[in-house]
Amino acid sequence: SQKIEQNSEALNIQEGKTATLTCNYTNYSPAYLQWYRQDPGRGPVFLLLIRENEKEKRKERLKVTFDTTLKQSLFHITASQPADSATYLCALGKRSSNTGKLIFGQGTTLQVKP
Amino acid sequence: GAGVSQSPSNKVTEKGKDVELRCDPISGHTALYWYRQSLGQGLEFLIYFQGNSAPDKSGLPSDRFSAERTGGSVSTLTIQRTQQEDSAVYLCASSSLRGNEQFFGPGTRLTVL
Q: Between chains, do A43 and B56 touch, taking CB under 8 Å as contact?
């Protein structure tokens, strides 16, 4: 069955360091992958989208890579700040004519300490 | 408002009762999604609407769950004969096109006693 795995344990890092979050998937061939941020009690907020033919995408302090051979995406936050503390979700989208649904991982909680 | 809105924000019901959850997507967005999130879990896809096309209902967990989208805008998710395992946060999202970023509402927290 389709499976998406994100770091189940919380990631604790010091302010100013680079946070790296991992998303691995099996039994799936996504056309694109998205990363979302979720704060407690709120809905997810979109951060980045990367397509299957792209290796890397950047947006300000964020960088995402997508390796369809390894079936893995890495999400980096450089110069991390306490305000970056949240849960980060990866989500896969399928190449399909009749659905736009996303399959989400369970998320990784990031805690940036000042 | 400019974002996705959902109502009610919280709903407490007794086992066996029916509930209706409402979602107002961003104006002009043709795609609308329902997900649910149980405590400490990721989002679980329920149903997807795209314009006038037949919805993708593949994520609905049982025939007690149904959803409709009237006039291509507002959507209602109905859960009949609620069970305790239905307790979760139900999230609605919309997007301008399939595959684009999804804009989420704040969710409805459903508690079934």
A: no
Parts of chain B with a pLDDT under 70: 1
Structure tokens that stand for A36 in this block:
């979302």
What distance in Å separates the CA atoms of residue A34 and residue A28, rounded to the nearest whole number?
A: 15
Mean confidence (pLDDT) of chain A: 93
Q: Give contacts of A 7-66 with B, CB under 8 A.
A: 31-32, 34, 41-46, 49
Q: From CA A57, how far away is CA A87, in angstroms rounded? A: 20
Amino acid at A96: S
Mean pLDDT value of segment A12-31:
94
Q: How far apart (Å, rounded) are the C-alpha atoms in residues A57 and B2? A: 27
Q: How far is A99 from chain B (nearest CA, A)?
A: 6
Note the pLDDT of residue A98: 67
